Amino acid sequence: MQNEPVKNTRKKIPRNKIAEQNPSERVQNFGEVELGYSEEQAVLESMRCLMCKNPKCIEGCPVEIDIKGFIAYIKDRKFKEALEKIRDKNTMPGICGRVCPQENQCEKACILGIKDDPVAIGKLERFVADYENTCKKNTALHTDKKEYKSKAAFGYDLDNHDISTAEIKTGKIKTAVIGAGPAGLTCAGELAKMGYSVTLFEALHSAGGVLVYGIPEFRLPKSIVSGEVEYVKSLGVEIKLNCIIGKTFTIDELLENGYESIFIGTGAGLPYFLGIPGENLNGVYSANEYLTRVNLMKGYLFPQWDTPVKRAGIVSVIGGGNVALDSARTALRLGARKVYLIYRRTEVEMPGRIEEIKHAREEGVDMVFLTNPVEIKGENGWIKKLVCIRMELGEPDDSGRRRPIPVPNSEYEIDTEIAVIAIGQGPNPVLTQTSPDIALNKWGNIIADSSGKTSKKGVFAGGDIVTGAATVILAMGAGKNAAKAMDQYLKTRAW
After folding, report:
1. pTM for this one?
2. 295 to each of 57, 140, 374, 475, how far by Cα in Å?
3. Do 385 and 416 form a contact (C-beta atoms < 8 A)?
4. Hey, do 166-269+427-492 and 273-423 end up sharing a CATH topology, with the first three levels equal?
5. Would you say 263 and 187 are in contact if contact means Cβ atoms under 8 Å apart?
6. Alpha-carbon distance 50 to 56, whole Å?
7. Superfamily of domain 273-423 in the CATH hierarchy
8. Residues 473, 477, 482, 488, Cα dihedral to 10°
9. What would you report as the CA-atom Rg of the chain, rounded to the nearest whole angstrom?
10. What fold does the segment set 4-131 form as a domain?
């Protein structure tokens, strides 16, 4: 009976807004924009949850987190237990709490959201992941387990945490995971929990994939990614860096060397370009290159790190997704006085997250809609101007959005010193070129069924290498599904 007043009034509790850096201050640094819930805010927000008998929010989560369960623990101030409840299904809550599009997934399905603002599920997930986290004190996470024996960065003791399946694994059955991004890390962690010996191969010098090379520090600190990677390693996963499958080893060579099943999660790292004159001029970047230089190569730490990335007064970013928004906001933090975001549709059709669009506008990004570049002009080998044409919207295309159509004789020029092309990316062919028996679609993506099964026996795939560029959580869901399918295959050898 004591809980009845809370039950009757929880709908009246307004959704807690998360604290943010002031826009004029945050464009001067690469610190996180959102500062996270306090303990009291998290508990209060948890009390808004209706504790539905049949929670729809779980159905909206690609990795099926017990959302009701972890929120109930927060309400009781059992934050350690809340984290463990999340980790039953999700190996990377600190990441998902920051970059998942909850508004289109779990929060969209929240029953409270029918007549009120939905429960801030993502913010609560982040809070739990950050609780007792060293990054909360603005210190970097250590990647050496010895550095934090007593209490891990994730809120519990790595040495004493019960991961029995990892402890009892015999190592007799070897599995390989290719790509240490969201899909690969998730698949590797799930396989380790099942008792398999797992080796994770990563082409770059740091694990994390798009989490470290693509998403800026102000949205996802590298320390958070390091902590989540360390958790996966603590399960028994061996990570081999600087190892390009397709060059260092082929898929067939891995199979010949005793790996009995393989998961491919190499993502979508091949940038698309506009195909217009002038794209080969200096000062024209793909978003992949621009963000990789700033993020993974630590260009954001200039002058401590003298990363070769041009800083300019006027920057133009072409695209309307999260990658375009990340590029535009990064340019501001690198000192640009004017940043254009050029998009061929309107704001309504932008695929970027609503809160990222809001943050970009607050920070001063000049959004130029219904516009598309048709030529890049330069001088002495460097970009000087974008020649653009105005667009209008026609009938919907295959994506359901109205198709942009050029307006005749509407060309005009925009002065710029840098152009960043952020119109999407596809699969890198390095791996698949050496495995011709893995079927691909016309775009070069691996063809796989819902479990991740490919045309090659024992080989599974998931994430952006299958679907094309999508979200972190969808890639994680694919990695988790593939791990289950790999387990079934290794037990039955049925294909």
Report:
1. 0.88
2. 33, 15, 29, 21
3. yes
4. yes
5. yes
6. 11
7. FAD/NAD(P)-binding domain (3.50.50.60)
8. 150
9. 23
10. Fumarate Reductase Iron-sulfur Protein; Chain B, domain 2 (1.10.1060)
Question: Quick one: how far is CA 221 from the chain centroid?
Answer: 12
Mean pLDDT of 182-190: 97
Q: Which option is the CATH number for 166-269+427-492: 3.40.50.280, 3.30.420.40, 3.50.50.60, 3.20.20.30?
A: 3.50.50.60
Count of other CB atoms within 10 angstroms of residue 369: 18
Q: How far apart are CA 121 and CA 113, in angstroms?
A: 12
Residue tagged 């010949």 (tokens): 256
What's the rounded Cα separation, in Å, for the pair 92 and 65?
11
Helix (H, G, I), strand (E, B) or coil at 201: strand
Q: H or E segment at 403?
A: strand 402-406
Per-residue model confidence (pLDDT) at position 152: 31
List, for residues 200-237, the tens digit of each pLDDT value: 999 999 999 999 999 999 999 999 999 999 999 999 99
- Looking at the chain, how many residues does it have? 495
Question: pLDDT digits over 128-185, tens only?
Answer: 999 856 434 443 333 333 332 222 332 323 333 333 333 334 557 999 999 999 999 9
Domain locations in the chain as residue ranges: 4-131, 166-269+427-492, 273-423
* CA 50-55-60 angle, 5° bins: 120
In b/e form, how buried is each residue of 235-270, taking b as 16+ CB within 10 angstroms?
Answer: bbbebeeebbbbeebebeebbeeebbbbbbbbbbbe
Taking the C-alpha atoms of residue 47 and residue 75, their distance in angstroms, rounded to an integer, is 6
Tell me phi and psi for residue 164, to 5 degrees: -60, -35
Sequence-distant (6+) residues with CB within 8 A of 442 are: none
Tell me: pLDDT of 4 over 50: no
The DSSP element (H or E) to which 396 belongs, if any, is: strand 382-396
- The rounded distance, in Å, linking the Cα atoms of 357 and 283 is 25
Q: How far apart are CA 202 and CA 210, in angstroms?
A: 12
How much is the pLDDT for 133?
A: 63
